[in-house]
Automatic annotation (TrEMBL):
The lineage of its organism: Bacteria, Bacillati, Bacillota, Clostridia, Lachnospirales. InterPro entries: Mur_ligase_C_dom_sf. This is Bifunctional folylpolyglutamate synthase/dihydrofolate synthase. SUPFAM superfamilies: MurD-like peptide ligases, peptide-binding domain. GO terms for molecular function: acid-amino acid ligase activity.
Length: 201
């Protein structure tokens, strides 16, 4: 959870809680509060409504914990990846981190992957080919990974296999120093595939 205070026109300073680890959602919450103030003028939305409303907010696919220590983020462009990496950097996790990554071919995936690798946040990266016809080919990702000697990555023909492999590694790490947390990012299509897999399990 994230606790923060916000100065408002009609409600004074309010202490708000977001049930997410995504720091960028504070900006979204602040914008939502400002919109409520402008549209309502403090007439019908009480301070308590505001606090409870923000506390109950849920953003699917935005640093969503879909399984214990498995976080799904819909970051699908360079700005999204930047916000995702900022959140991962600040999330306080002390163990290992793995990333399941896939991307659409029409995105600037070279710069996206560069940001991911150069962040140094992930102990391993599983790059998977999505079912979607817009998915980048694994050979293209492989060529990019080769630019970064020392980057630990594995290519997978499909998302299902990649996800299962990461879950198995996470299972093995439980209870040990360096327990593993899994992150999933790079495409909304990838987020959709993961949601579909989880719905069938």
């Amino acid at each position: 959870s994230i606790d923060f205070s916000l100065g408002t026109r009609y409600y004074g300073y309010v202490r708000l809680t977001l049930h997410t680890i995504a720091g960028y959602q504070m900006e979204n919450a602040a914008l939502a509060v400002r919109c409520a103030e402008v549209l309502d003028g403090g007439k019908t939305i009480s301070r308590e409504h505001l606090i409870r409303g923000i506390e109950k907010c849920f953003w699917a696919g935005r640093m969503e914990e879909v399984l214990p220590e498995v976080y799904l983020d819909g970051a699908h462009n360079e700005d999204g990846i930047r916000a995702f990496l900022d959140t991962v950097k600040m999330d306080g996790w002390q163990g290992k981190r793995s990333l399941l990554f896939s991307v659409a071919a029409d995105k600037d995936y070279g710069h996206m992957l560069q940001r991911v690798v150069q962040s140094g946040l992930f102990d391993r990266i599983a790059a998977a080919h999505m079912k979607n016809k817009r998915a980048v080919q694994l050979a293209a990702l492989d060529r990019l990974f080769l630019r970064y000697p020392g980057c630990r990555y594995t290519l997978y023909d499909n998302v299902d296999t990649a996800f299962c492999a990461l879950l198995e590694e996470q299972r093995k790490s439980r209870g040990q120093i360096g327990e593993e947390r899994i992150y999933i990012a790079g495409s909304l299509y990838l987020a959709g595939e993961i949601k579909e897999l989880l719905a069938h399990d």
